Amino acid sequence: MTSSPERARRVPMLRRALVLGGALGVFAILLGWLLLAPARQDPDAAQEATARAFALLAADNATSARNAALDAVRSDPANAEAHRALAVAMLALGDGLGAEAELQRAVDSGTDSGQLAHLRAHAFLLQGNVDKALAESDRTDARFRPYGLRMRARALTAGGDYAGALAALDAAIRIAPRDADVWTDVARFKRTAGDLLGAIQASEQAVKLAPGNVDALVLRGVLVRTQFGLIAALPWFEAALARDPADHDALIEYAATLGDAGQTVASLAATRRALDARPGSPQALYLQAVIAARAGRFDLARSLLERTGGGVDSLPGAQLLAATLDLQAGANEQAIGRLRGIVGAQPLNLSARKLLALALLRTDAARNAIDTLRPVVARGDADSYALTLVARGFERIGDRAAAARFLDRAALPGLAEPGAFRADDSAAVLAADVAERPGDPAATLPLIRALIDQGDMAGALAHARDVVAKNFGAPAAHLLLGDVLMLMARPADASVAYRNAADLRFDSPTMLRLVDAQDRAGRRAEAANTLALFLSQNPVDIAALRLSAHWQLAAGDYEPAIDTLERLRLRIGDGDAALNAELAYAYAGAGEAEAAAEFGEAAYALAPSNPAAADAFGWALYRGGDLPGAVELLQKAVALAPRHPGLRWHLAQVYADLDRRGDARAQAQAALADPGFPDRAAATALVAKMG
């Protein structure tokens, strides 16, 4: 388990309480009005409704239990058990304010206050009052001690006392080893602390002990989504909703997962159900805003986001969406403020950095834009968009030589290894910091970077292995080890480390690392299986679709490549030069020359200095019979990237058809000079034919 988690991860309970407080407070006021409204007294009906409420709670249907308890308290406002049932249901539904009021009514109706301390602790936690929650948890009656310890652990976690929280949960396990709620809280705590392995194991135990526990099912779904993928998580949320169809948290997770899996209609339907369950839900409105933005309906997205009333402002995703909408509307200064906050909290968020640089360029802060993107363009795998933004920044400040260098890189992005941001201090200074904080990954990571910078790979590897040994349940530790091994040109060993990370968190960055390591280790079939498995779980992941299409094109599987690329185009639109170029190749390979020429022309219009775009357009024209147009574009492509054997091979074939025998032979021989050139037999035959 990580010993020094980031501060941003220490307050999930408080953040959730602040998000939900407004909507639930309205419900509490409405409830008070209902209780004060005239109603016919019926103690027998109240008793029956109370029994039904507790039965529904036992069946893990808190929404229906709340409704039954409401019937009970309206039939007999003096029924203490009815108030207690209503309070328990409200706690299960996240309504701390309403639960506190109902607990007080239970006391006023005769319940011993000391028997409700654990429930009051829960209510205070939901309201974000950690101190009161701790005080009440300490007063918990012995019969409810596991519940009280759970609340104590949640309060301590919210306050950053992870050691104290773990001790409370260990005590709860000793007292109630078969309590599913205890194991659910253990899983939640382990996840917050970064120990995904521990969280997975605890959540498995929770659903084993109580297969219908809605809270356990939802958390299990969240962890399965991380561990295996989007599609695998859906049945867990569906199982929770089968128990309580109106459970707000289950609906939100279900909607988010459906949306990320590309099932937009189903996702929208789930958000509407969430709004029915909790009118004005900030999370549901935020998800609807995301759906609207993806569909290009920016005004609607902006309106929906405004309706959240700031309820999701603490979420980086919501801030990123808001900043994107600001940029779309021309509110650059407002976008800058949001994006600086995101980059400050998440320095490795490359999307936020690129958006911030764009906003800064729009406000003539070119030097600041360049500084924002320096860590991004220092990477060997920097994308063409980031490189172009930096180039524009240098143009603004009059440094045309630097601008030209970055524009050259943008025209033909490098394929070098991605690297972590460089260390800010010397290895000696950082080693002293590690000695003062032994076992702290936050101290060890900068040291590993510094050791890599100075070429001490053995030292970096030793420290990376130490991080894994002390944080085996944290995916980031395994990724770090794999990255070091890749830098040491040991892809087979790196693939083992990446596989360990993927067993805990099978997300896009982990998948890409694992696929690359397997491929470099000479295990292309295994790499293809990894990619296919990821896509089966995450069918609209952009990086996975790109890689899959690239491999399909390389294998000559043009029809499947068209399907993959068109799915990608639906996701990201028509403004991507690389995507248009690959569509041109795919349609040309499938014999659809007209479509190939259209996409080739679109790619070339977007990036006329990109050799791949010029080649794609030229090759599409060639397959359509326009040899003069093709040769001009293919010559330009070769001039831009003279070392690329594939471009030379395309030009050789056009020269051959034009009967330029010497030129065709020269280009084919140049392609053959590259040992990695795949079409050796065809090129050799062409050389012989042209001789």
Oligomer, anyone?
Answer: single chain
Strand content: under 5%
Number of helices: 39
Radius of gyration: 30 Å
The low-confidence runs, each spanning 5 or more residues with pLDDT under 50, are 1-23, 413-427
Distance from N terminus to C terminus (CA atoms, Å) equals 67 Å
The average pLDDT is 88
How would you sum up this structure, described in words?
With 691 residues, the protein is mainly alpha-helical. The protein contains 39 helices and no strands. The chain has helices at 12-36, 43-58, 62-75, 80-92, 96-108, 117-126, 130-138, 145-158, 162-175, 180-192, 196-209, 214-227, 230-243, 248-260, 264-277, 282-294, 298-307, 316-329, 332-345, 350-362, 366-377, 384-396, 400-411, 427-436, 441-453, 457-470, 475-487, 491-504, 508-520, 524-537, 542-554, 558-572, 577-589, 593-606, 611-623, 627-640, 645-657, 661-672, 680-690. Helix 29 (508-520) runs antiparallel to helix 30. The longest helix is centred in the first third of the chain and has 25 residues, at 12-36. The chain is elongated and about 105 Å long. Mean pLDDT is 88; it is low at 1-23 and 413-427.
Concise summary:
The protein is mainly α. The chain has helices at about 10-35, 45-60, 60-75, 80-90, 95-110, 115-125, 130-140, 145-160, 160-175, 180-190, 195-210, 215-225, 230-245, 250-260, 265-275, 280-295, 300-305, 315-330, 330-345, 350-360, 365-375, 385-395, 400-410, 425-435, 440-455, 455-470, 475-485, 490-505, 510-520, 525-535, 540-555, 560-570, 575-590, 595-605, 610-625, 625-640, 645-655, 660-670, 680-690.
